[in-house]
Design brief:
- It is built from ten helices and 15 strands.
- The protein is of the alpha/beta class and 301 residues long.
- It has three domains: 95 residues, Periplasmic binding protein-like II (D-Maltodextrin-Binding Protein, domain 2); 79 residues, D-Maltodextrin-Binding Protein, domain 2 (3-Layer(aba) Sandwich), CATH 3.40.190; 118 residues, Alpha-Beta Plaits, CATH 3.30.70.260.
């Protein structure tokens, strides 16, 4: 299988990709280009970041996944995020005046940099691996890069400081996406379903109506974000991860309810949870409970 990923090599996405086994892989310069490569058939599937425990959702992924033609999430990967400060051999920490890194990385090491390099200029852009590549170049304009160890070692840099993230338990979540005609992952009992919901109108209680569809069926949400529809100022849709699989009776009933009450429901896939945590089902939320209720109603009819 040939897999695409949001590159370049040496990024955390590349590191997460390597956990999926030995596959041919192709790096793309942006999330949009990565997802479009799946749509066009250049690659069979692709890995992109979707959420970080510190910074929240990845806008480029959330906004593009549901674009037409929509894709399907078939797997997720959780990767602990560990940053280091890397520079050419012989560079001392006190020599570092200019640091280059990705904006997300900068946000996750902001306090460390303020404490240890208070006078350094921090430049954000590109990727963490690209920052390492730049610092390793003979004509580098920056003294050090904040990046993953895989990138620092790849470009022959020396680690000036390791484990510099402000939150040592930071984790980034990645999703493997494929075209809708790909085989749908079977349910495991520890699954997630991702969707984008477009309300009919902006009105009081609109979000409550959506949330009630989940609450009434005992479904817990693991992520809820509002995203602009990019049509009119003030118009938003909701990107949601929920516990359960489309083959679960409670999830199927929820999707039916959402289809009745929302202008549009974009289904982005049901897939196994990386942490393998099974959903806690309240009384009345099991498949057996739903089937008994349907049988009772059929008898009345």
């Amino acid at each position: 299988m040939q897999l695409g990923f949001f590159g370049p090599v040496g990024t955390f996405t590349h590191q997460a990709l390597l956990t999926l086994g030995d596959h041919d892989h192709v790096a793309y310069a942006s999330v949009v280009a990565t997802l479009n490569a799946v749509r066009s058939g250049e690659v069979e599937a692709a890995l992109v970041p979707i959420e970080n425990s510190v910074e929240g959702g990845v806008s480029a992924t959330l906004d593009n996944l549901g674009s037409e033609p929509a894709l399907r999430i078939v797997r997720e990967v959780l990767l602990p995020v560990q940053f280091g400060l890397y520079a050419k051999h012989g560079t001392r920490l006190e020599d570092v005046k200019k640091v280059l890194t990705h904006p997300t990385a900068a946000a996750q090491v902001r306090h460390w940099l303020a404490d240890h390099l208070p006078d350094a200029v921090i430049t954000e852009g590109g990727s963490t691996a690209g920052a390492a590549e730049h610092v390793a170049a003979p004509d580098a304009t920056h003294d050090a890069a904040v990046c993953a160890r895989i990138a620092g070692e790849m470009y022959g840099l020396e680690e000036l400081a390791g484990g510099i993230a402000d939150n040592e338990s930071a984790v980034t979540r990645f999703v493997l996406v494929a075209r809708p005609d790909a085989a749908r992952p079977t349910r495991t009992g520890a699954d997630k379903t991702t969707m984008v919901l477009y309300p009919y109108t902006d009105r009081p209680g609109g979000l409550l109506d959506i949330l009630e569809q989940f609450a009434a069926r005992g479904i817990n949400l693991t992520r809820l974000e509002s995203r602009p529809t990019k049509t009119t100022l003030g118009q938003y849709c909701f990107s949601i991860d929920a516990e359960g699989h489309i083959e679960d009776e409670r999830m199927a009933e929820t999707l039916l309810g959402l289809h009745r009450t929302c202008r549009e429901v974009v289904f982005l896939g049901s897939y196994p949870r990386a942490d393998e945590v099974e959903a806690h089902l309240p009384r009345g939320a099991s498949d057996h409970d739903y089937r008994r209720a349907h049988a009772w109603l059929a008898g009345l009819r």
